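Dear support,

I submitted the protein below through the web form. The confirmation email said the job was done, but the results page showed an empty box. After a refresh the structure appeared. I'm attaching both so you can tell me whether what I see now is the final result or a partial one.
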Amino acid sequence: NYKLEELYPSDHKIRHRVDSLMDLQGNMVRPKFLGAARKVVFPQIFAGAKPNHQAWVATLDELKPHLEQLNREVIHDFMATDHLTIGDISIFFELGLFVSLFRFDL
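What the results page shows now:
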């Protein structure tokens, strides 16, 4: 069982790291992923469009630098510290959605 203190640490340096990574997720990861989904996934789901392999490849190529930046930000087994925080939980679900929508192997 985790306590609130562990999920959102009171140590200001660690809390800043958690906040920074959640900010990165909310302002870079999510908008880029949703933009990519709007281009190639949503037309198939909502309009019955046929898959366009070239559009998928181009879109994933556009996302690559952002995934690499996110990868550089993860400095431990967990995102901000040596244990689970709300930042880890948040990005886990974001990346899970990405993997399921794009059938992408992280």
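Response: this is the final, complete result; the empty box was a page-load delay. The chain has a mean pLDDT of 82.
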